[in-house]
Amino acid sequence: MAAQISANNGVAETLVKMWEDEFELLRPLATRVETDFSRFIMLATQLEIQAYYYVSPSDQRPNFTLNALRTYNTSQNLINTALTLESTCQLLTHSPHWVYRALVDASCILLSTLHSTAAPQHLSPPDAEAVAAQVLSLLKSCSVRENDLPTRGSVILETFWSVRHVLPKWDIPVGAWPDRIGAATSYWCLTAFKNALQEAKSITDGTQRGIDAFQQKFVGNNNSGNIENNVNTNTDINGQEQTMDSAIDPLQGIDWSMIIDDFGWIGEGPVFLGPA
Predict the structure, then answer these.
(1) What's the domain of life for this entry (predicted)?
(2) Selection from 149, 181, 177 nearest residue 274 by Cα
(3) 227 and 118: one domain?
(4) Do 113 and 21 fall into the same domain?
(5) How many structural domains does the chain have?
(6) Handedness of CA 149, 138, 85, 180 (dihedral sign)
(7) 95 and 232 belong to one structural domain
(8) pLDDT digits over 126-164, tens only?
(9) b/e map 107-138, b = 16+ CB within 10 Å
(10) Tens digit of pLDDT for each residue in 40-74?
C-alpha cells in the first residue's frame, strides 16, 4: 500500500477491489467458527481495506459513490458489533489500542458521511442522531482515565456534531491524506472537524456580537423591560422555535485550546494532524 501511494499518490479503485476479493477468499481460513469477536475482527479488517477507496485518485474511481456507501455500511456494522460486545463482555472497557483505532476510523467515516451531501438518503434526521449517539457512546466506553485519548477524541466528534447545523455540508463523504497511509481517512476527517469547529466558533462569536449590539440599541429605545433575563427566541432550520439565553455563549463548554493546540493544529511546531 505504501508503495502504491508513493508511486501514484493514491491507490486505484480496481486495486482496492482486488484486495477486497482476496480478503473474501481468505476469510474462511481465518475464522472456522464465527463469533461476535471474530466478526468484529473481520469487519475491522474489511474496513481497513475499504478505507483505501477514499485514497483513490479522483480520475480512477468510477464507482466511488457505491464504494463509499459500502464503506459506510461496514463502519455501521462494526459499531453495532462493538456495542454488542461491550454489553456482553465489556470489550471496549478493556480494549487494546488497535480496537480503539478501528472504532475511530469507523466513527469518523460515519459522522463525516452524515454531514455530507452523500449521506444515505434513507436516513431521517432522528436516525442520524441515533447513529451519532451510538458513536459517541462507544468512544466514551473506551476511556479508562480522565482526559485519555478516547475521551479527547469523543470531545472533538461530539463538539463537531453539536454545531453541524450552522455549517455547510461538504461535497464528498470522506477524503484522505495519502501520506498518512493507514490513517489517511481519520486524519482527513479530524482536520475537517477541526476546521468546522473553528468556523463555528467564528460564526457564534460574530452572532454574539450582533446580539449584544442589537440588545444595546433595543434596550436603549425600549425602557419598558420587554426583554426579560436576556432570553431570545429564534427559529431553527426546521421552523421550530428555540429559546437561547443570549448572555451565554452556546459553545462555552468547549475547550478550544485542547482541540486546536494540543494536536499541533496551530503554531510553528510539528504538525501532528497534517500531511507528512
Answers:
(1) Eukaryota
(2) 177
(3) no
(4) yes
(5) 2
(6) negative
(7) no
(8) 999 999 999 999 988 988 888 777 888 888 888 888 888
(9) bbbbbbbbbbebbeeeeeeeebeebbebbbeb
(10) 999 999 998 998 888 887 777 889 889 999 999 99
Q: Cell triple for residue 172?
A: 464528498
Residue 243 pLDDT: 42
